Known about the structure:
The structure holds 2 protein chains of 2 kinds.
Chain A: H1 2-29, H2 34-39, H3 45-54, H4 61-73, H5 87-122, H6 127-141, H7 144-158, H8 174-208, H9 211-218, H10 223-260, H11 266-275, H12 279-307, H13 309-312
Helix pairs in contact in A: 1-12, 5-6, 5-8, 5-10, 6-8, 7-8, 7-10, 8-10, 9-10, 10-11, 10-12, 11-12
Chain B: E1 9-20, E2 23-35, E3 40-44, H1 51-58, E4 66-74, E5 77-78, H2 84-90, E6 95-98, H3 112-124, H4 128-141, H5 147-151, H6 160-172, E7 178-182, H7 190-207, E8 210-215, H8 218-224, E9 227-232, E10 235-241, H9 242-247, H10 252-259, H11 300-304, E11 310-311, E12 317-318
Parallel strand pairs in B: 3-8, 3-9, 6-7, 7-8
Antiparallel strand pairs in B: 1-2, 1-4, 4-5, 9-10, 10-12, 11-12
Helix pairs in contact in B: 3-4, 3-6, 4-6, 6-7
Amino acid sequence: MGRYVLRRLVESAVTFVLATIVIFLGVRALPGDPVRALAGEENDPQALAEIRRAYGLDESIVVQYVRYVGRALRGDLGTSARTRLPVAETIGHALPVTLQLAAFAMVVAVLIGLSTGIVASVRRRTASEWAANTVALLGLSIPVFWFGQMVILLFAIAYPVLPASGFVSFFSDPVQSLRHLLLPGLVLGSGLAAVIMRQTRSAMLEALGSDYIRTARAKGLGGAQVVFGHALRNSLIVVTTIVGLQLGALISGVVVTEQIFVVPGFGKLIVDGVLTRDYPMIQGLVLVTATAYIAINLLVDLLYSVIDPRIRVGGAVL
Amino acid sequence: MKPGSDRLLDVEELTVRFGTEDGAVLAVDAASFALGPGEVLALVGESGCGKSVTALALTGLLPRSAAVSGRITFAGRNLPGLAERELRRIRGRDIAYVFQEPMTSLNPVLTVGRQIGEVLRRHQGMGGSAARRRAAELLELVGIPLPHRRLGEYPHQLSGGMRQRVMIAMAVACRPRLLVADEPTTALDVTVQAGILDVLRTLRAEIGTAVLLITHDLGVVADIAERVVVMYAGRTIEEAHAEALFARPSHPYTRGLLDAVPNPARHADGGLREIPGRVPVLATSPDACTFADRCGHADGVCRTRRPAFARGPAGHLVRCWHPLAVPVPP
Ligand SMILES: Nc1ncnc2c1ncn2[C@@H]1O[C@H](COP(=O)(O)OP(=O)(O)OP(=O)(O)O)[C@@H](O)[C@H]1O
Ligand SMILES: [Mg+2]
């Protein structure tokens, strides 16, 4: 177990370094001269050169990279070219908003996905399975932007029971926060819920048909013990992996969802940053995204090893 | 046959039909047999004869696609008439199973201790530590060294033979009155097989449980069975005491099985040379002998009339129009 964790930590660190290089070079490969964006109306070559020097853009690329990493590690992601505010601070304000939204969407997705998936596998060839499958199909095929607007039309305009926009932190006012999170969370989580449902269903069907389930039943165990204690335990291995892989999709869903529900989060920063070619901001945002990705993957792998003893003990998989 | 009141298990006219996408499959066709307390009965036959389906049908473990009819009387109760709740109380406590595949029959994500403990909690209301202590005792009973350490291990950390011992420990945890062992040694190495049979024999002596031993290995039968029921295409076709069956097989099919094993008493590796042809998969029960197509003795009667299960020339039950009268040469 210890060796496995250590190996995954080292791997994550290497991935992180590679990510910083790619981000650093990638942003420089974007079309458009950032100096021009910074200069605004200014066209004087001397002024441009000044800006270039001020931002260290006249140095060699290697020096620029080392400086960039050094500053990033100290939490300095530069200054936004648009707002002139520190990038780290701006992201620091937006990130908790998005994390709360994503976490809520995740909880919604896991609750809906697992329960419908289990129902669909246990109640085969019944109306419940049919209903669960239909919901999953809809969840997968309805585009987020359309679903978002329909939800707003229905619950905020036709029957105004929930707010259609804005954000309240869970830690300042939980009730208001949940009211604000409900619609965007549902919209953001719907795709993931559908994926989890389908994975849960197929993993459960496989588990329920296996020899060890026959053994469990032959021991006289009741339905719930067989389904949850034996079949679900095994199915969670697959489901966890899929959820981990799908978190990336959640991040891109955040961008659209935050636009629709006017949530002042990470996704809004990305859209604003790209539209105004706010080069330091984009760089910071991508770096944070990449870090989140790496962290999530690490977390999923560690979780995976907790659920599956074949990874945790025995060494064969190490 | 012992008088009715002595019987632990009495299966009468058990019929199991599966509805499948390719039509109906008649897996068990009016099979009848009985088992006394503490008796070891072997159920033998080639692959696909309906042995496992019979075993699972006893306590209602078949999938929903199976239609079961007939009477199964266990300790005076008709099992098919019981509610699922009642059957659950019987499974694992009064009737326990050991299955063929030790690799897949244990749950890969639960520890050995948890899987054995589960039975004890379920049926004997034991708490965590009591169940653990008893589970360790059970592991010791089935010959697993360092039982306390094994309790915390997962199936993938054990060898095939060890896993089968764990299965057996689980099965005998509540001292069942009937142990159904469905090909308990088939998936194991020959050397390991002997050990498992030893464990079964010892436990039977200690607990006094009756054993329904399913196998297609006549070597195993000669080793530990007292009586033998031979199945073919879902029907019981011969039933006799083990020695009688080996000495005077009356059904040509039984004879074929024995001929494929020159000396069953000495033969332990279970190599069964096939009788030409295959076990038919039937949709309905034909008015004929189901073995006729593979039988050298078959004639018009065999193909047009259903043979009864009746006493043959050797004095035991056989389902054949032309039962063999000649004993097997020594
Ligand atoms: N769930 C099922 N659905 C449809 N048919 C089945 C099902 N289970 C078993 N059968 C059929 O019933 C027949 C008897 O199967 P069974 O498993 O009892 O054979 P067996 O004697 O145990 O053979 P083996 O030695 O291979 O274990 C076979 O023809 C099999 O295909
Ligand atoms: Mg079988």
